[in-house]
């Protein structure tokens, strides 16, 4: 259609963590009619200017008849699934008065409660994406003071959690991706990129397929990504660590050393560091620096001695050395035999042969050996490639891990093994290899390379939570105790939301025996936005009860959902197509956003907000004004909180008068100008009108910035691989602290701290957990797993009819995926209504029978089983979350858990096929 009243307006979609992606929206007579690609970004955006299918649902999202379009106040004081909240519409003035009265009463009591935790809590879900829709709300939060982000929504602990923590520890890799445009071989253990990677990943992998790369998908069911891979290996759930240990075994014990990258191992990693009989690094008695073996002078010398060729393998006699154990306990070691970290690895994996793993993983030993060979064959040891004028190693093999491999028990082992595999062939952080995408725990967030600084022992500096006697945080500052229990998560702005967020929920109800920490309080006020823990977490029916117990919940609401059913106040913010915000775009970022540009993109008011929905920036300013916080709020905006660049910088000043309330457009105009001026080094200034017309502002960046290796080399820093002496020590120290307080309920988690992870029966943990609950594992013979959907971004767009319609054409979206032969044995036919039962509950859906899934495995797409969200509640879609327990026993040392549960399945009684 083309009339004088038709326009196309550039904007962005950032509804899932694979974004942001540019798009355009067609508007006819003031009505948004369709979403389209933004081909202006064709040459810069790795997805060639295209958004994914989900963005096409934004028109229906805007005009969804079920939207909350006025502030609402709860009138029923009782909260529960069966209690109608009795929401009644109120004016914005009344809503903001109610909220400011509440906040003022909290301020009067003190922002921190009697247990030392903030009275205000907030949950923003889905991998941090709500930030890109909340305008200047972060500036309001900054002006307010301490806030507890402890109550999670399944994001973090259910995401690629171990990778977040260990990935960032080893190579500043909050998430990890293949260098797809250059790689020749990708071993993907459950990474479901063709469903979850958005247009960037999908375009990159499609191009790589044309180029002839090979992707091997190791996954218990044949996902969309498995279907587009060259090979599918149906592994037994939660045995990936054994599979990878065997690959490492094969690479080290079946192949000659010259198939590995010996120079990389010797010069860029901790492989040559000497390990003593106590399992700790041998250190120089004076400087306490780790020792290496000088292969020419035949003596142990500190690792940073110049002009030394360290020995990679061997055992050596060392006359005098020390080791430094937990709590700085120093051991004097004389005339001992030492070996290298690499040798330790070699000996350690000797037990993990492919034949051994075959039995555990249900993968033939020959397949494991072949994959190890293929990986080595494609590693191109010794080859180089020119990138931006620099000659870099070219190692086109990558290993990636999906969400459920990357969280819960076994995830540490998998992350470690993945990084070891990259290390062995020098494919870590080099072209073609395994790369980190971004940093969250370390700063600066916008530049991964600059987050690397030299630290102790020749490794990167790490900002870990202290475990020493003086500094350990014995009294948690937040309700998930992240600084107390998880050293590796650190204490930066994102750390709390990445802490063991399920503990915050669990400890509200039950605490383990000998808890010995301050009894957790309820937050006086809880803000929730774009998150639905009552659907997205585990044991969701019980979680609901905890949510219902919170005294005052404020939900920024798009529709009713299962969480805000318990809210006291609903505030409708103007959504995707109705409001304005400028955010960063480009650089490198999860999932596979690797750009050769960097800049900012505008989300703009494409159409007038529906009903009384208000721009989030307007809401934030209004709150700041009413709370008398304008000066702090505007100061935070001037500093760049939630925006892109500080409003005042070298050679420019667009800062706002801190004592005035500014309209959203005025604020974003200043942010637009500051950002473009900063990005162009003061060469040009683009205002809001320019962005409204042009959408995004980009500057070229070198592709070299994708790779961390040159920075590590330049700074003379080694990758902390393969031997984890530091983690071993930290674990012991944490144990000492907890035991001094008679806390024993975290002991199992402490077992994860090992220098070289050992295989233990990881799937067996789920069986043991059942026994400990008094259930018989034989009654639950199937593994139930989750998988994500291209059409849905977690549970956020389940109320959009178009997504439902499209997804019905894609396998897995009609119920529970089950192997046809297993179904036949139980008399289940395709489309039958089935109940899937765990020891804590039941979920009902339709059987979707296929061959491409292991006979012992069931899979449910996404997160459904809604009972309040309009439209979705009528779909009768089952959900793993209803029946998977939230369990301390199934929580790993990082605080994460996996979406996996033992279940039984049967036809719903009384129904015939
Ligand atoms: N079974 C299962 N569970 C999972 C996962 C899985 O794959 N399977 N994935 C896990 C992972 S990795 C994550 S990150 C979490 C995510 O889980 P959550 O963080 O809880 O996020 P969502 O499910 O996306 O919840 C989004 C909520 O925001 C609302 N919403 C959508 N758009 C808007 C809007 O414009 N304005 C407002 N105010 N609200 C809006 C939706 O109605 C919905 O209620 O889930 C985890 N849980
Ligand atoms: N379209 C879309 N894209 C998204 C999201 C979304 O909701 N929708 N969410 C975003 C978010 S928040 C995240 S965290 C990422 C997650 O991105 P992915 O990690 O790609 O997510 P999943 O689809 O859950 O893929 C994990 C796969 O691992 C399989 N699996 C389960 N257990 C095992 C096991 O023991 N071994 C092996 N080998 N495989 C196993 C599951 O069946 C599943 O197919 O996606 C992001 N992108
Ligand atoms: S991949 Fe995610 S951010 Fe990108 S267009 Fe799709 S939903 Fe939006
Ligand atoms: Mo996630």
Automatic annotation (TrEMBL):
GO molecular function: 4 iron, 4 sulfur cluster binding; metal ion binding; molybdopterin cofactor binding; oxidoreductase activity
Origin: domain of life: Bacteria
Matches recorded under InterPro entries: Asp_de-COase-like_dom_sf (IPR009010), MoPterin_dinucl-bd_dom (IPR006657), Mopterin_OxRdtase (IPR006656), Phenylacetyl-CoA-OR_N (IPR041932), Prok_Mopterin_Oxidored (IPR050612)
Alphabetically ordered keywords of this record: 4Fe-4S, Iron, Iron-sulfur, Metal-binding, Molybdenum, Oxidoreductase, Signal
Pfam family membership, one: Molybdopterin
Molybdopterin oxidoreductase domain location: 67-626
Domain Molybdopterin dinucleotide-binding intervals: 807-864
Family: Belongs to the prokaryotic molybdopterin-containing oxidoreductase family.
Protein name: Molybdopterin oxidoreductase
Origin species: Amphritea balenae
